[in-house]
Amino acid sequence: xxxxxxxxxxxxxxxxxxxxLRCSPMKGHSHVYWYRQLPEEGLKFMVYxxxxxxxxxxxxxxxxxxxxxxxxxxxxxxxxxxxxxxxxAYFCASSPVLDSGGYTFGxxxxxxxx
Amino acid sequence: xxxxxxxxxxxxVPEGENLVLNCSFTDSAxxxxxxxxxxxxxxxxxxxxIQSSQREQTSGxxxxxxxxxxxxxxxxxxxxxxxxxxxYLCAVGGGSQGNLIFGKGTKLSVKP
Lengths: 114, 112
Fold this sequence. Notes:
The structure holds two protein chains of two kinds.
Chain A: E1 5-7, E2 10-13, E3 19-24, E4 31-37, E5 43-50, E6 53-56, E7 65-68, E8 75-79, E9 88-95, E10 104-105, E11 109-113
Parallel strand pairs in A: 2-11
Antiparallel strand pairs in A: 1-3, 3-8, 4-5, 4-9, 5-6, 7-8, 9-10, 9-11
Chain B: E1 4-7, E2 10-14, E3 19-25, E4 32-38, E5 44-51, E6 56-59, E7 62-67, E8 72-77, E9 86-93, E10 100-102, E11 106-111
Parallel strand pairs in B: 2-11
Antiparallel strand pairs in B: 1-3, 3-8, 4-5, 4-9, 6-7, 7-8, 9-10, 9-11
């Protein structure tokens, strides 16, 4: 029973390129959450999705960032025209039902913008 | 707006000591509170989950307490070991939308 799978583990992009981060939730989990951890900062909530629906994107920057969780396949966090300030660790978590508290986190994707 | 604070930011203890990590939150209307462990360059491992109706949870050498009225939680680690060295994160769940609010963590170092 694999946990939450994130790939790639490390991603290097030049300024202006696009970054695509993938997250496959645990089997049986239908809720996906994305968090960002900036250097020396705590984890900040970005977006909460269920299959084919964005439930809460209050933590997402208004521009360049988007997320999806299609009916088939992993959840994708997409960052367009990356800037150096986007360098961070991006974590995905999943849970079976809302408010169960049973969050399982992936190992994260470490994005470096050069 | 919920804010979560963890004190101390860093802690170094000799092996075998019992220790307490503190977490405080500003809004007592939480749904649950979770303690996580994060190793350098790794993801988060859930240690203990306390629902709002509970006062404590135990797992092995770990014990977490929750006092909603005062907005505090503590993580007690008994007989610390070098393998306990990691960053410990406290997170509160507000319930309405499912997202967690994290503290910045306590970086623990247990010296052999």
